[in-house]
Amino acid sequence: MKKSLIILLFLFTFIFASEPYTPKRGTAERAAIMDALRIEVKKYHNIDVLFVVRTLKLKDGWAWAITAPMSKDGANHYEDIVALLHKENNTWSVAELVCMEVETPGCIDDPNFLNGLQERFLDVPKEIVSFGGKQ
Questions:
Q1: Which residues, 6 or more positions from 104, have their beta carbon under 8 angstroms from its beta carbon?
Q2: pLDDT tens digits, residue range 6-65?
Q3: What pTM does this model have?
Q4: Residues 117 and 124 sit within 8 Å (Cβ to Cβ)
Q5: In whole angstroms, what is the distance from residue 29 CA to residue 39 CA?
């Protein structure tokens, strides 16, 4: 009986561990993801930002984030930033900042965008990539 219970617990953990999830506000995992994105924004735009998270989905060491960045004092608001992040060796980093240009081939509104993303990052779980919802 004890052995059966252990097997059931293992299967239950495996099944639910493979589902996409959103880390709660204030968790170390969420902070690590936002910090990785913040570093990337600082590198490219030389601004310090806070993020309003519209969407954040994780699965299998990948994260999909849709954010509304703003200055730390809240006075300035910037264009949304969409990013794919990857966790390697317990460290999150930005795999790709998604091109948000309208009507530009290869960017987010291109009908082939998701296929291109899957080709560039073969292991990205398709179910984390979406373009809506606030989390």
A1: 110
A2: 444 444 444 445 799 999 999 999 999 999 999 999 999 999 999 999 999 999 999 999
A3: 0.81
A4: yes
A5: 16
Residues facing 81 on adjacent strands: 67
What is the spatial distance between Cα 9 and Cα 69, in angstroms, rounded to a whole number?
40
Summarised one tens digit per residue, pLDDT across range 72-118 is 999 999 999 999 999 999 999 999 998 888 777 777 778 888 888 88
User: Which tokens sit at 74?
Assistant: 């809240």
Q: How far apart are CA 127 and CA 81, in angstroms?
A: 19
CB 102 within 8 A of CB 87: no
Cβ atoms of residues 89 and 61 within 8 Å: no
Structure tokens at 47: 């601004």
Assigned CATH topology for domain 21-128? Nuclear Transport Factor 2; Chain: A, (3.10.450)
Nearest to 108 by CA among 55, 31, 48: 55
What's the CA gap between 34 and 53, in Å, rounded? 9
Nearest to 40 by CA among 116, 118, 106, 95: 95
Q: Are 67 and 40 in contact (CB under 8 A)?
A: no
